[in-house]
Specification:
Blueprint (H helix, E strand, L loop, with lengths): L1 H23 L5 E6 L2 E6 L4 E8 L5 E3 L20 E2 L5 E2 L3 E4 L2 E4 L8 E2 L12 E6 L3 E8 L10 E10 L3 E10 L4 E2 L3 E2 L17 E4 L3 E3 L12 E2 L11 E2 L12 E5 L10 E7 L5 E7 L3 E5 L7 E2 L5 E2 L6 E5 L14 E2 L4 E12 L1
Antiparallel strand pairs: 1-2, 2-3, 3-4, 5-15, 6-9, 7-8, 10-11, 11-12, 12-13, 13-28, 14-27, 16-19, 16-21, 17-18, 17-20, 20-23, 21-22, 22-28, 23-26, 24-25
The structure holds 2-acetamido-2-deoxy-beta-D-glucopyranose (NAG) (2 copies).
């Protein structure tokens, strides 16, 4: 009897240990959303978009998102492939700011500056899976603690990826400040190539950006604070043109924030961009409720080993990261990103994919 008792105690301890461990450590998994021949794969590590599979004009399916073969490879990655970046996307000069008279020192990870929320930002953590239905949506949540990477206050973050109608993907990002005012600027850092992720560069893709101005940057890619009209500059994409058509005027592709034209707002969503690729006939349209969009032509991709044994090179993908303006917390003339206690930040993106 003594032996049986000891055995049961052991079994109970093991079960308790497993469930306690399970409760505090969320497992990393892959979540697929599927409707017809439109498929999106996501993971709760970094709330990352792993793949988006859509038909071309002949019905041929391709994965149009750059990424890695395994989820593990996203864990020590410097590309931010597909991830949700935060607490504050983009750069913060000197990794510091002052808010309500309090000076905050953040963790730098881009020289002296902070990029995409620091070395362990939202793209580097495991999110919880709050709800998931393969034919409709997946919702990830993350509790960011007071002082995380130097940011003030507890913040409850939610990201939902949702299938809408035919070949439309919605991304809703929400963040509620629980006890301190904090800057919040979330962005989806997906790299697109409408010809398929291994099809070469995106310089011949056509882009329209509904953006009359941009925020110039210095040599460290930090905004100077100016807001400059795109007219007469290589930054003007108001008329559809090939992405590479003005590359010769630039040092190294595009990595710049645009000021979105918010006058054509439809239910508070503004049309931000249209991307077209002529061989596949694929087109991607993007709407959002945010005032800025970072346009990045993967200028620093180098020789990055990716999915299906493919090695990506510079300019093999393009990012259209809707967000607030970079380093807003140090530029009072930029739209504020401060979320006060009890307030909720909300960022909506809608992508529509077609092929003709
Ligand atoms: C991550 O990459 C860096 C630089 O490539 C390396 O020094 C470090 O050991 C890596 N960490 C892990 C956990 O693989
Ligand atoms: C693509 O851009 C070129 C200029 O670079 C332009 O001539 C052409 O009309 C554009 N195509 C579409 C479909 O808008």
């Amino acid at each position: 009897m003594g032996k049986t008792y000891v055995l049961w105690c052991y079994v109970l301890l093991v079960l308790w240990g497993v469930s306690a461990g399970g409760a505090e450590k969320e497992e990393v998994g892959i979540y697929e959303l599927k409707r017809g021949d439109f498929t999106v794969q996501l993971t709760n590590f970094g709330a990352i978009v792993l793949s988006v599979i859509v038909p071309d004009k002949n019905g041929k399916l391709d994965d149009i998102v750059l990424g890695f073969e395994t989820v593990d490879e996203y864990k020590n990655d410097t590309t931010y492939f597909g991830s949700i970046v935060g607490r504050v996307a983009n750069r913060i000069k000197g990794a510091q700011f002052t808010l309500n008279g309090i000076h905050y020192q953040l963790v730098p990870n881009d020289g002296k500056n902070m990029l995409h929320g620091g070395p362990k930002g939202f793209s580097e953590v495991v999110w919880k899976v709050k709800s998931y239905e393969t034919d409709s949506h997946v919702t990830f949540t993350y509790h960011s603690f007071d002082g995380e990477q130097g940011f003030p206050g507890d913040l409850d973050v939610t990201v939902t990826y949702v299938l809408i109608g035919t070949n439309k993907l919605g991304v809703t990002m929400k963040a509620k400040a629980l006890n301190k005012a904090t800057p919040v600027n979330l962005a989806s850092h997906t790299y697109w190539n409408l010809g398929g992720h291994g099809s070469g560069d995106i310089v011949a893709h056509n882009l329209t950006l509904f953006a009359p101005a941009f925020t110039p940057v210095d040599s460290q890619l930090l905004p100077t604070g100016q807001i400059v009209p795109v007219e007469g500059t290589p930054y003007d994409f108001r008329q559809s043109r090939a992405i590479g058509s003005e590359f010769h005027q630039l040092a190294n592709g595009y990595d710049i924030n645009y000021v979105v034209d918010t006058k054509g707002g439809n239910k508070h969503l503004n049309k931000v961009a249209v991307v077209e690729e002529s061989k596949s006939g694929r087109m991607m349209e993007l709407w959002s409720n945010k005032p800025g969009v970072q346009f990045y032509t993967s200028n620093k991709l180098g020789h990055q080993k990716g999915k299906n044994g493919i090695t990506y090179s510079n300019f093999d993908g393009l990012c259209l990261e809707t967000q607030g303006f970079p380093d807003s917390v140090n530029h009072p003339n930029f739209p504020s990103q401060i979320v006060n206690p009890g307030e909720t930040y909300k960022h909506v993106m809608v992508y529509r994919f077609t092929a003709n």
